[in-house]
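Narrative of activities, Objective 1.

The group set out to show that a structural description can be obtained from nothing but a protein's sequence at a throughput compatible with the screening campaign. Below is one input-output pair from the validation batch, recorded exactly as produced.
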Amino acid sequence: MTASNSAKKFALAAVVLAVLVAPASVLLAQPAPEVQKNLELFQLDKKYAGDYRSYADGRFNLNDLPAYQPQQAVSGWIKIHGAATLAQGKLARYWEEGFARFHPDTHFSYFLPAAEVALTPLYYHQADISLVHELGFYDILPYERALNSTPLRIAAFTGSFDMAGYAPAYKIIVNRDNPLAKITIDQLDGVFGAARDGGWVGTAWRIDLARGKEKNIRLWGQLGLTGEWANQPIKAHGYCMRDPAGETFSDRVLKGSDKWNEKLIIYGPYFDRGGKALSIEEQLAEAVGADKYSIAFTLGEAASPKVKLLSIAPGASGDYVEPTADSVQSRKYPFYREGAMYLNLRPNGKLRPLVEEFIRYVLSRDGQSQVQRDGRYLPLNRDTTESQLQIVNAIAAAPTQAAKVGPLKDENAEASLLTQARRAIAIAKRGKETRYPPDQFDLSDLPAYKPKAILDGWIRIHGLNYIETASLRKYWEEAFAKVQPGIKISWFLPTSAVGYSALYYDTADLLLASERGFSDSLAYEKIMGRKPFAIESHTGSFDLPGWANTPVIIVNIKNPLTKISMEELDGVFGAERNGGWQGTTWHPEYKRGPEKNIRTWGQLGLTGEWADKRINVYGFNLRYNTSTGFSDIILKGSGKFNEDLIATGNYALPNGKRVAGGDFLPRAVSSDLHAIAFTNYSEEYNQPGMKVLDLAEKKGGPYVKLSIENARNRAYPMASYNSFMMNATPGTPMNPLVKEFLNFILSREGQTEVQRDGKHLPLTAEIIARERAKLDKGWGNEP
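Output recorded for this entry:
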């Protein structure tokens, strides 16, 4: 390639990088001011702009890494999606330029908005490689459900030592006056964690990861400190579980259980009254620096002179390692992090030759030299590159075959896929049921559908699998075709967990789902600059598991309590908190103290032998949407649960039998006189030894009894619902095909099909009037 041609090619590549950083639909989006302001809290520090680097080029000797040796000549395009940091530095460009020296006929396209896109580029077949940091539970789950496999994972670089956004290593900080100098990860579990009934490895629930409360560490003396320190309580600080930093720390320390010390003080980013942006890391350093009995886990630089870093040893070992850039790069420091390339294997279990060659390049001295040249992430060491190359070589050498979990046996991945398979069987069986008759509700007060125009074209709908498993998808499509025969619908309904990616990738016009989680919402807001536009479609089922059945509170049948308020539920199931989340916005004003905890039945008004009996709390696993939704409604989105909560995940036994939390909770409450649980109402799982409490928004009432009518009209405070969501693009009209379809859904004809299916509940006239007004108004500024 001549110098002139090379210059032209890389100039073009720069244009490709700029243009392909977002699909066309993203370029149309105008930011909503309130969302844009909140996003400032998640943007990387401006000091990282330009040629900023965190260490000198050549600091790490990479001579022991293998030089890149092309295995085959390749050409064509590679599509890479993922973390914005690849473009905010120069690593993406350096890798492209370096690879092109060996393979001049290769080209790259990028979509690098945020690491939160996770695996969506793969199960939507938008990219060859998704290059991101750690994955969360709901990053992995939709991939497994959509593709019935697990992705291939190859480490690409080690995270930075202390650069925010660049997968910085976890550090443990204490006050500078604290005599403690080191701590083990098992001890950190004792400090930050609580008793648990198991833990997650990916999406596989492992009951062997359980531990009891005897391993809790709550005093400094339990860590070996003496004198005035021995009996002082440890004041723990950290990230909220909803923050990916909290979830990943849980994976690394708490065995993925999310069972936290209930006195953990959690933080979120926010603007103070003066308008100054306060990062979590700044707040952690300030809190620990101001209180000598405090400890925190952080991703920050620990630059404050009032705090110090602890050396860390893995497990219970005595192999303590001081946190430095060198110990993180060598991976001797156990809290290093990494960025990884996630890929789909082809149907024959192989990698595309061009992609395989690029991976080999990244894992070579040449590729890792570009990481060091960029100076933000840290290059891989020899042991890591060799282990990753072994995976690539195993794939290349393996016989051609369909691969679901890659060439190397992964028992956790296999367990997860078995659980998903058993779940699918249970759902398919329930999909044939009808829980109430087609005339259960009088729908004559709902407005009839009146077409505003007879149109032609296609609508793409993704998301909720339950309308496919049952008959609602079919009923809606057939009924709509009678009034709009020219409008066709294509459906992709593997799970609502595909989330907002269906919208920001412009693969769907509508997403049918419940409100999505933190990372999914943050990804959407980073890419689109606003929140999605949503129209409710139906209320959840009254009692059919999986169909958004009604959340309820149950107690033992012998318990004299008959009713409870939302505020009291916060006291029973929650714990002191420093704030809470509403969507992706942190609200310090949601804080509450430990004095509002309710731990005995007497605090709920029971007398006699009940008064001093401790309340035994049960609930769904804290990673499930049910628990997240409960936290949103009851705990102000804090994720701060009573640490004695007994929670389990769904899993499959070796004999193939499925263990479901929905079944476990009624049985547990029926056998425990002093138990209370949040669960979803189900005639299938109900036990004679339990009862459902009446609920009220506020203490004193009015209290509402559980009934199918109260669930439908939303008088019952915790009823569920689903919505159709779409991209809101002010300045452009709403898609008329979509608008006609939603008008049909919000009609007597559309809700009649919901009732005909007999699982979800039809919307009321009041809800339809509200949603129609929203639909007619649109998103504003429409031409």
